[in-house]
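Figure caption, in words: inputs first, then the predicted bound structure.
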Amino acid sequence: MSDALNIAPPNTIDDAAGPSTAPLIELSAVSRTYTVRKAELRAVDRVSLAIKPGKVLGVVGESGCGKTTLSRMMLRLETPSSGVIRFRGTDIWDLKKEGLRDFHKSVSAVFQDPYSSLNPRHRVEQVVMEPVRVNFGRKATNAGRIGELLHSVGLPATAGRMYPHEFSGGQRQRIAIARAISTNPELILLDEPVSALDVSIRAQILNLLKDLQAASGAAFVFVAHDLGAVRYMSDEVIVMYLGAIVERAPSEALYVRPRHPYTKGLLEASLPPDPRSPNLNSSIEGDLPSPINPPSGCRFRTRCPLAAERCAREEPELREIDFDHRVACHYAG
Ligand SMILES: Nc1ncnc2c1ncn2[C@@H]1O[C@H](COP(=O)(O)OP(=O)(O)OP(=O)(O)O)[C@@H](O)[C@H]1O
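Bound structure (adenosine-5'-triphosphate present):
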């Protein structure tokens, strides 16, 4: 059972952690649609979740299931088509001036590709200090702080005078992480932070992230294809399929006893753990349906071994099947 990360739907009774710990970020029925060739594509579909301070939420699912759109909305880079995202209780789209500045220094991100996410014309010291400069002004960017940040991600102080292209992929991701922690954020969104890296250095970066998370007490949203990495990092995990959460549970419960047929398929496909073959599809029949024209009823039914007539008619709700363990399937369990 997770003791403090509560991703119960909003307006429900709090979990065993008690009501004292308010969520840091809370999403209530958040959707995002795009218009593609005059058709509506629902990239994220009525997602509700809440993350408490200091907790790590893992997000898994096949390519195209809405993970990136979800994290971009939490970063305020993308507007929800409907639903509300609250950060410390305030709708992030109601934030103005001071509140917005506070949001930008409290929420940061690390993206997949450290090659394109770092400005090649800036020295590393400018790159890592950019959020500090933007939020606190140039005077706050002192050499001591730069050295401290570089040290905390395992880079020498001399790295500050160099340019991003002078570093390997793993080192560049360390630079991106230093930038992400530079304002001491309370929430860091990590979107596939190790998938572009050589397998040999992924573990080092994961260990670094784990240590930084424990030391800083920041909450993380950890988005990844790699189920092993998500298990290692997360307190709680959500599994997404065609834009919606189909299962969410404390990490151990999800991995030891997955309940949704899709989660089971993902886990089977990832065993034995082999980071060189992260193809999540192999044990799940068929292709991902188009999000423009998703199946009626249960969105997973066209690929599901348990599918029955009811599944085409009725959309399963995300219901609690074990304590803190929710699944959107008529027949799970
Ligand atoms: N700006 C956009 N315009 C149109 N469709 C979009 C846009 N952004 C995302 N989509 C679509 O929304 C769906 C969800 O995409 P998203 O990138 O969030 O998924 P993902 O799970 O992060 O995938 P990946 O693991 O490949 O990054 C996909 O079908 C994608 O094509």
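Confidence is low (pLDDT under 50) at residues 1-18.
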